[in-house]
Structure formats: C-alpha cells, structure tokens
Amino acid sequence: MEDHWAKIIEAVGEDLSRPGLRDTPKRAAKAFEFLTQGYGQSVEDVVNDALFPSDSDEMILVQNIELYSLCEHHLLPFIGKCHVAYIPTGKVLGLSKVARIVDVFARRLQIQESLTAQIAETVMAVTNAEGVGVIVEAQHMCMMMRGVAKQNSSMKTSAMLGSFRSDQKTREEFLSLLRM
Questions:
Q1: CA 127, CA 90: separation in Å to the nearest integer?
Q2: pLDDT tens, 61-94?
Q3: What are phi and psi of 23, to 5 degrees?
Q4: Are 9 and 29 in contact (CB under 8 A)?
C-alpha cells in the first residue's frame, strides 16, 4: 500500500524527496489500514459472548455513538453519530459491544445507507431482539470539500426492524427518546 500512496503523491505533482513528504507514503498506508480495520474484524470476535441473561423487555437505547467512515465513491470521510435501540428478548448486549459493532462496519468503505442497515441487522441477529432501530446522522466530506461544497449539509438514515417497523408506538418511543 505504501508504494501505491507514493505513486498517488507523485501523480499530483509532488516531490517525495522533500522533507515533509519523505515518510508520508508509509504514514498514509498506516492511517488507511486503521481507517479500514473493520475488514479485519468479525462481529463474533467483537461481541465475544458479551450477551447476558436479562428479564428486561423495555427499550434499550445507546445514542450519540461517534463514527468515522469513508465513502466508497470518493474515499473521503463521513463523520457523525449513531443511535441504536433494541427491545431484548431474554438477553442484553454488553454496552460497549453496541459501539464496537458500529465501528466494525464504519471502518469499511461504504455508503451511509448500507452502514445503517448493517448495524441494525447485526444487532438484531446477535441479540435476537424483538426489534431494532438505528439512526445515523453524518456529514460527508464529499459534499463539503468538493462537488457542491455545502458546508452545513448532513444526512440522516434509519433502519427499523421487527417491532420498530411494525409497531408505530415503538417507533415513536424511539424517536421521542432521541429528542430528550
């Protein structure tokens, strides 16, 4: 990857022998590996059996989980937050594991719509929940730094599964908790 970064830097007209760029291909490769580390992670390893028996059947909401991802179209960052709610059916997921699931998928090349769906489907599968709701709010550098250059634009996506899709009251409870 380091060689490819060197070629990209040279292709824009830069001189890799100047002091500020000598180690840039190596640093860029290391940074890109970190930004895409989700490819080397599995949900099973991240969850690591952190499912705990529980009698709770009320909504669990983890909100404002920060996320950093790269869009698959321009390889530019999108940055935002994720809100994940689920209604357990006998098992609850360790709190940090919800955030780790978000990171597994955020640290891959993709679009926000897919990211939102992947998080919801994974939480549903892992917890066997009655329902799952996920909302992602993000600002996309491909909209802000290039193209239309709209600095204050943001995108919101949602995925509602199970009772969050079929029961309007469950969906409304989720959305009202986010407004608090």
A1: 9
A2: 999 999 999 999 999 999 999 999 999 999 999 9
A3: -105, 10
A4: no
How is residue 110 written in tokens?
Answer: 């993709």
> 0.90 cut: is pTM over it?
yes
State which amino acid sits at residue 28.
Answer: A
- Locate the domains of the chain by residue range: 2-35, 46-179
Query: Which residue, among 47, 154, 99, 133, has the nearest Cα to 107 in the 3D structure?
Result: 99
Q: Which residues are annotated as catalytic? A: 71-74, 112, 140, 142
Whether CATH 1.10.443.10 fits 46-179: no
Q: Which two tokens stand for residue 102?
A: 């978000």
Say if CB 56 and CB 88 are below 8 A apart.
yes
Nearest alpha-carbon partner for 28 in 43, 10, 40 = 10
DSSP designation for 130 = S
